[in-house]
Design a protein that fits this description.
The chain has about 400 residues and is α/β, with parallel strands linked by helices. The protein is built from 17 helices and 14 strands. It has two domains: about 160 residues, Rossmann fold, CATH 3.40.50; about 220 residues, Rossmann fold. It is about 45% helix and about 15% strand. The structure holds pyridoxal-5'-phosphate.
Length: about 400
């Protein structure tokens, strides 16, 4: 259950969102967010916060990041009219093509932004965490580009599941550290990266991979990912002749979704829908649908919605897509849900696999399993809203998922 606000409270919070008041001085998005960290990390976070304020307002820094986006990442990414899908669904379907960005997903927008920031802040070593390996690959590539050594923490379980991405990171010059503590997946990898940062907070910079964690990370990652929505808004107005009626994006930690949604938050007539991993079904432990089925609590440094049991123990999650398989979510999404500006739905493993297959055959686009969840929800919406225009954030490509897809095709 999300926090319960009155209609007046919702309206006031929404106005603050539009006035760009969040995060506030305490790093909060309304009641959510903040900074719950060990004392040893306080100086490092204070330095980071000052650096973020300075460089995100520095036109020269923003220009250097924008140059990297244009020349190295390959932005702006295309806006594609999905002709066959539109015909099949009876709606007008547009795709924002983050799968065409360098390294195959939106993660690079943030990784190169933070790598450039780390360089400015005088870091000598970059650390990052990764679950599926996509953020690890993006960080390894960005570090190579800016000339900083990169160490990636990855759960031992994930290292086995995602062997091709481990090889890619090593090829790009990164050191991959196996994390054998806790659940040996993403959550443990984030804990380990934080622990390592404590050991040398002055020289190490931690590139976080989604809009999660303690302030200022949710803000920093949102700013770097908002390029998606800025481009998409211009493109769809020019190419389609107007705004979409609804926008869909998959939500793991929530970075591609917040990046796409941000430019449209003020357009009340545009429905925004985040789609989480429904896994095998609605029972605790069977999914990663944090906003749809979770409760408020503190996870990895922020007050947000999380999957926890009655004792407050964080719950293991399940999803066919490793990138959505996380028991928390970015605090800004928790706010947008509680004020009713964004709806959060979920799609099951099976629905996502079917949607992926349909998109492949209709448009010749092999999308990521994460992204396929957004397509599954969009298809349902289209069947209830014939003739309407919808935009889907195509967050990444699915080449990385071939092992999973082959296993399902056989099964
Ligand atoms: C990592 C990943 C996601 C999930 O992360 P968010 O921070 O929620 O965007 C979604 N899609 C792809 C392709 C990814 O690699």
């Amino acid at each position: 259950m999300a926090l319960d606000f009155s209609e007046t409270e919702k309206e006031i919070l929404y106005q603050s969102v539009l006035d760009n008041k969040f995060p506030d001085d305490m790093g909060r998005f309304g009641p959510f967010g903040g900074r719950y960290i060990p004392e040893t990390l306080v100086p490092a976070f204070s330095r980071l916060e000052i650096g973020v304020k300075k460089y995100l307002n520095d036109p020269q820094f923003i220009e250097s990041w924008q140059n990297e986006l244009n020349e190295w990442v390959g932005r702006p990414t295309a806006m594609t009219y999905a002709k066959q899908l539109s015909h099949a669904w009876g709606a007008e379907v547009w795709l924002k093509r983050e799968d065409l960005a360098h390294t195959g997903a939106h993660k690079i927008n943030n990784a190169i932004g933070q790598a450039l920031l780390a360089k400015k802040l005088g870091a000598k070593q970059i650390i990052a965490e990764t679950g599926a390996g996509q953020h690890g690959v993006a960080s390894a590539a960005a570090c190579a580009r800016v000339g900083l050594p990169c160490r990636v923490y990855m759960g031992a379980v994930d290292i086995k599941r995602q062997a091709p991405n481990v090889d890619r990171m090593r090829q790009l010059g990164a050191e991959v550290c196996a994390v054998k503590t806790g659940d040996q997946t993403l959550r443990a990898a984030i804990d380990e990266a934080m622990r390592n940062w404590v050991s040398d907070p002055a020289d190490i910079y931690y590139i976080i991979g989604s809009a999660v964690g303690p302030h200022p990370y949710p803000f920093l990652v949102r700013e770097f990912q908002s390029v998606i929505g800025r481009e998409a808004r211009k493109q769809i107005v020019t190419q389609a002749g107007g705004l979409p009626n609804a926008i869909f994006a998959c939500v793991g930690g929530g970075s591609n979704a917040i990046g796409l949604f941000h430019s449209f938050l003020g357009d009340r007539e545009v429905e925004l829908i985040g789609v989480e991993a429904g896994g095998h079904g609605p029972d605790l432990g069977q999914n990663a649908a944090t906003l749809a089925t979770g409760t408020p609590g503190v996870l990895q440094g922020a007050y947000t919605m999380i999957l926890q049991n009655h004792d407050g123990q964080v719950q293991e999650t399940h999803s066919v897509s490793a990138g959505l398989d996380y028991s928390g979510v970015g605090p800004e999404h928790a706010l947008l849900q509680s004020i009713g500006r964004v709806d959060y739905e979920s799609a099951t493993d099976t629905e996502a696999l079917l949607a992926l297959s349909e998109l492949c055959k209709a448009e010749g686009i092999l999308t990521a399993l994460e992204t396929a969840h957004a397509f599954a929800a969009a298809k349902k919406w289209a069947s209830n809203n014939p003739g309407k225009r919808l935009l889907i954030g195509n967050s990444g490509r699915g080449d990385k998922d071939m092992i999973t897809l082959s296993a399902h095709m056989k099964g």
